[in-house]
Amino acid sequence: MKLGALNPPQRLLMGPGPSAVHPRVFEAIGKPVLGHLDPAFLEIMDETRSLLQAVFGTENKLTLPVSGTGSSGMEAALVNILEPGDHAVVCVNGAFGGRMADIVERYGAHATRVDSPWGEIVPPEKVADALNETPNPKVAAIVHVETSTGVLQPLREVARLAHESGALFLVDAVTSLGGAPVDVDETGIDVCYSATQKCLSCPPGLAPITFSERAVEAIENRRSKVASWYLDMTLISKYWGSERIYHHTAPISMIYALRESLRIVVEERPGARYERHRLHSAALCAGLEAIGLTLGAQEGYRAPMLNMAFIPDGVGDASARRRLLDEFNIEIGGGLGAFAGKAWRIGLMGESCSRASVMRCLDGLESILRSEGLPIPQGAGLSAAMERYESGS
Amino acid sequence: MKLGALNPPQRLLMGPGPSAVHPRVFEAIGKPVLGHLDPAFLEIMDETRSLLQAVFGTENKLTLPVSGTGSSGMEAALVNILEPGDHAVVCVNGAFGGRMADIVERYGAHATRVDSPWGEIVPPEKVADALNETPNPKVAAIVHVETSTGVLQPLREVARLAHESGALFLVDAVTSLGGAPVDVDETGIDVCYSATQKCLSCPPGLAPITFSERAVEAIENRRSKVASWYLDMTLISKYWGSERIYHHTAPISMIYALRESLRIVVEERPGARYERHRLHSAALCAGLEAIGLTLGAQEGYRAPMLNMAFIPDGVGDASARRRLLDEFNIEIGGGLGAFAGKAWRIGLMGESCSRASVMRCLDGLESILRSEGLPIPQGAGLSAAMERYESGS
User: Fold this and answer.
1) Which of A233, A354, B17, B97 has the most CB within a 10 Å radius?
2) What are the b/e assignments for A288-326, b being 16+ CB within 10 Å?
3) What sign results for the dihedral spanned by CA atoms B199, B201, B205, B208?
4) Helix A317-328 vs helix A355-371: crossing angle, to nearest 10
5) In a mutagenesis test of the B interface, which of A42, A229, A247, A267 is the best target, namely the one with the most B β-carbons within 10 Å?
6) A38–B331: do the CB atoms touch at under 8 Å?
7) Quick check: B44 and A10 CB within 8 A?
8) Nearest CA in chain B to A102
9) pLDDT digits (tens, 9 = 90+) for B47-76
10) C-alpha angle B294/B299/B304, rounded to 5°?
């Protein structure tokens, strides 16, 4: 077999992740590989943990990147806390809430689902009811930003309800971390996981995770071994802790990349970073509406880093996205589940979240939609976005 | 928090993995990230699969890299094949065989252990007995090269016995793949997994895996869902197959790196590569014996890419390895389990397997041992290795 060297095209990544990667992160990922027990690498692990604690907003000791993508973080969170027969309240208003419920059941625990329509938040009252109806709920699990719909779920009230009922509060911050406040300790989150390729703008491959002291206690008091050996925090914590007992070979180069991407997040400062996401999303949404698209997520609860908009009637989903990719080198996401073929998901995450991205995307979309016959006044999207930028709101 | 840019030292990696990474692989890992459903990335996935098939020596369609390190490959192999209540025969002659048995039990299956002393192979007769004694054995699992001892297990006889008893034959090729013949189809292996950071000389983070048609049939005929959602091949195969259904976001940059490292393996040609590993191991072992070390693995079954040698009396394990690291920038591995503190594990894997590595390691070790008072004639190790190189055997 004869294959040439790798030569991937340079896309503008505005899908649901991965997002653009800063040149500094590419520089870090190519640094010499160290052994996973090399003292120089152990120091890098400690630094990475400190940076993760800063970005999560937590002092949790058990904070580390799981050696897998965001979904492995979801599985790690659930499989460490739950034992067969345990009860979990799982909020489901999109694909990722559904995935949590699936994982809970696979490991022999019971999921009380709190279903809400895709595109809307899960009302805290419904969570309260589910917690009341569930015998000894061990955990209440919710997705902060549903990547399948772009809804941003308020967390504090649900955190309070979970704790009142004696449950741990588990949050999927895959899409939100680095782009909107998560503030693990202040919010009262007991288990929180994320992914590297969204608002942290690192290549995909790791799942940052953090466990509160109450969560660690629950793990320590398990009656059974954690079902997954690979994700077993009772073992992994001995490698990331002072014992340094080998568990599995750490993904060295990816940890280099994560460390650098977190350094960039911390340098920007969280407040400025969240404001940047808010501003560009506001401009993008104004532009999308100006070219005739309707926003999909519930008003007042729209996530800035993932903007869902319905595809205008008569426009082909796959063909329009393919033209955007081929003619403009821009990737946006298609709809998932209930919204497959009906909506687009436009990401503005981390390094991808800029005025240049917004303008380039609106330019491309407007041009394609007009060529499909939609009566859009020339430059309508760009003008609307520009107006937003000039008003700064 | 103020942390500087990453600046890891350049080590000669001669531990049990990671091994040295070729500059071409670093170039590939830094290429622009693509979306996991980008047509250009789907092509890269297909190419990576073809390369994996070539290196595994298989035509198995279900061949792909698991999105985690080698141990996730082990878990993926077992959790997809086994269901609660199933019986597995697991050969245990070191740490990694023990890990397999642990995983089997965690998922509610039964492991019939075939224990053999650490440092020795598992005799096929003992496997035959275990297969006979086990009701409906679904799988017989064995480690090809035990990374904890450096033993290379012959596979063909065990493959035959497994198939005779109706079991699938599962092989851990984490340390062997790319450095010794695995030949999945010819050997009769049904499930085989490896890791990227050993003889493939790619950074750690992925676990190549392959399933035969019989293994795929077993997965398709499961009565229960695969317990691990993240490792569920019934879902992952739909992303790697023609359906391209999203499961989890692929670790794009690591797949770039793997593709390039496999390209290098294929360019060298397997036969030449195995011979290279054999030759340098022979030279290293001659040198080690000449400076007074005793080889640890059973004679006739020594793996070329992982050489275990007992530490001479009176020499401190940790302090000697630390001096080798600090004064010579060379990493070798300590002993595991039964051999902790008693033996060293010296890797010669992929890019790390060269005459330069052998000589530099013998130079450093001899120098340290002599300074610890061992009566080694100057240059004894280097001379012995050189003699081997000149004889070519």
Assistant:
1) B17
2) bebbbbebbbbeebbbbbbbbbbbbeebebeebbebbbe
3) negative
4) 120
5) A229
6) yes
7) no
8) B229
9) 999 999 999 999 999 999 999 999 999 999
10) 85
